[in-house]
Design goal:
It is built from twelve helices and no strands. It is mostly helical. The protein has one domain. The longest helix is centred in the first third of the chain and has 26 residues. The radius of gyration is 18 Å and the shape is globular. The two termini are 35 Å apart.
């Protein structure tokens, strides 16, 4: 049982689960825009998420030398290095425009993690900004890059899907911010810190209604997509409703981050 728990914790702490969620959202985008067999883009997003998230989570600790490189961290470092190699491999299989835009999102990730300015604060420590940067990066990697790489026309449906994806990621992050309310620095000015938990939940419910409602403005009619997006909005609303500071780390790091994976599986079944 301990071995299973250690393996499961490594799966979560090594960002494999969140990377699978990223992979799932790319697949959802490709499904909606009828993009077939663009596996390099999906794998680029998967391995890029492992590298990006592990860099953000462990870079500051390694730079400050606050933790020793125990076996688990060494394994995560090896996983990240191998993933970085995979990112480079798939990067050169992407279209030129996709490569250029992906470098832009890479720079945004560096800005998020590293202190570039004189106040020595990175973007994730800027008051009230973190949630928007993370949501924007997810939209870029899971919607913008797949569409650009497949040379799909940027119609109104593309912009609607960008807004929908931003809303979904935004609400999922709200759940994280509610769970982490007691641990977050008050200077971060997260949404729950600014408006309170109850208003944050009401905001999330309103955004999820908008998330689903935007389907009716799309020109591409995909009944399965609309049906599954309603279920996902409902499931996310339930996670939001039951979110509180006493929930375990698995509530967000596994269950909440499983929402995109569940959406992808629903589309595969449907």
């Amino acid at each position: 049982m301990k071995i299973f728990k250690k393996a499961f914790d490594f799966y979560l702490e090594g960002s494999i689960h969140v990377a699978l969620s990223c992979f799932a959202l790319v697949q959802i985008t490709q499904h909606y825009f009828s993009i077939s067999n663009d596996y390099p883009m999906a794998y680029f997003a998967f391995f890029g998420a492992i590298v990006g998230y592990n860099f953000v989570k462990y870079e500051a600790l390694a730079r400050a030398k606050k933790v020793q490189m125990k076996n688990k961290l060494k394994a995560i470092a090896i996983l990240s290095f191998l993933s970085l190699w995979a990112v480079g491999f798939y990067f050169f299989q992407l279209e030129r425009i996709t490569q250029i835009v992906s470098v832009g999102f890479f720079i945004l990730t560096l800005l998020y993690a590293l202190p570039f300015f004189s106040n020595r604060k990175n973007a994730r420590n800027w008051a009230g900004v973190k949630i928007y940067i993370v949501a924007l990066c997810w939209v870029g990697v899971t919607v913008v890059l797949p569409v650009l790489n497949a040379d799909v026309s940027l119609t109104s449906d593309f912009y609607i899907k960008c807004i929908q994806r931003f809303i979904l990621i935004f609400v999922l992050i709200l759940i994280f911010e509610i769970i982490d309310l007691a641990k977050d620095d008050p200077h971060l000015q997260t949404v729950p810190q600014q408006i309170g938990v109850n208003r944050t939940k009401k905001l999330g419910f309103l955004l999820l209604a908008l998330f689903f409602g935007l389907n009716f403005f799309s020109f591409i009619i995909d009944v399965n997509f609309e049906y599954s997006s309603f279920i996902i909005a409902t499931i996310t609303a339930l996670f939001l409703a039951f979110a509180n500071e006493k929930r375990s780390k698995y509530y967000t790091s596994f269950w909440v981050e499983s929402v995109p994976i569940l959406w992808w599986l629903m589309l595969l079944i449907l």
